[in-house]
Amino acid sequence: MGTPDFAVEPLRRLVEAGKNIVAVVTMPDKPAGRGHKIQFSPIKEYALSVGLPILQPVNLKDPEFIEELRSYQADLQIVVAFRMLPQVVWALPPLGTFNLHAALLPQYRGAAPINWAIINGDTETGITTFFLDEQIDTGRIILQEHTPIAIEDCAETIHDKLMMQGAELVVKTVRLIESGQAEATDQSLFITEEPLRSAPKIFKDTCRIHWQEHSLKSAYDFIRGLSPYPAAWTPILANGKETEMKIYRTSMLPDNSSDGNVELLSDGKTYLRISLPGGYLSLEEVQLSGKKRMPIADLLRGTNLSLL
């Protein structure tokens, strides 16, 4: 059960490992783009390419969907980047239902674990497989693997690393469960003195940069934690008109002599920097509302920018 690209690689690995996939569950098709053309989810595209049956319920509690799902007599269900399942669904198979989560549970329970780990400046994250239970991301842990977050990583690079790592972990988890050797552990045994952080869903307002609340490092982490999607943004004046600017890539210029006052600095040709406590944040790749994404030097040609 899954929808985005993150779910495709685990399914591909299971198919390539010769596992008997009886059906794939994904979100209903939806119109996209200016022409409102019906767009298939990435997981549906792959399932069609290998001839797997596809279920696309609107309501996961729909009795007809439940009966259809039951008719496949699956021994095990696997969830990757999907909706919260009702108990009537996750309790169906005799071997249970497990989920792949892109964090080291119990840290970062929620919808956006990759983003929040980077936003918070963590230097490590990972992946977890766990059995589903009544609450979100609280079930017994089967396997975990760690991965470092480098200072140059963004949400996209960590997503891609964890997608590949997670696909391997799903296959390992299936083999453990098949062999009867899966020893699931209560999440309470993974709790340390480190405070638990959550990973709530990210909305547009979440992505707005409030410069006065940031140091150099926290602004850098905030932007890379949302890059390239949904992207951090700031209101800005472009040639005297108020608009929004998404920021995809920055670099840090530490300077402890900086007075910390938020200020936009530019030569109007090659650089745009924001002064913050700890130094200067150099904006490298941005996008004005209604325009294409571009290097800052390209934008500065003919565009005068100032913070609101």
Helix content: 25-40%
- Count of runs of 4 or more consecutive helical residues: 8
Question: Span from first to last CA?
Answer: 44 Å
**Which shape, going by the Cα principal axes?**
globular
**Which regions have little confidence, pLDDT < 50, spanning 5+ residues?**
none
Beta-strand percent range: 25-35%
Say how many strands there are. Answer: 15
Largest sheet: 7 strands, antiparallel
What order do the SSEs take from the amino end to the carboxyl end, as H and E?
HEEEHEHEHEHEEHHEEEEEEHE
Average pLDDT number: 95
The radius of gyration over CA amounts to: 22 Å
Structural class label:
alpha+beta
Question: Your description of this structure?
Answer:
The two termini are 44 Å apart. Strands 9, 10, 11, 12, 13, 14 and 15 form a seven-stranded antiparallel β-sheet that branches. This protein has a four-stranded mixed β-sheet with strand order 5-6-7-8. The chain is globular and about 65 Å long. The model has no long low-confidence stretch (mean pLDDT 95). Helix 1 (5-16) packs parallel to helix 6. It has eight helices and 15 strands. The protein has 308 residues and is α+β, with helices and mostly antiparallel strands.
Any descriptors?
308 residues, alpha+beta, seven-stranded antiparallel β-sheet, 26% strand, globular
Question: Topology of this structure?
Answer:
Elements: H1 5-16, E1 24-25, E2 30-32, E3 37-39, H2 42-49, E4 54-55, H3 63-71, E5 77-80, H4 87-90, E6 97-101, H5 113-119, E7 124-131, E8 141-148, H6 155-179, H7 216-224, E9 232-238, E10 241-254, E11 263-266, E12 272-276, E13 279-288, E14 294-295, H8 296-300, E15 305-307
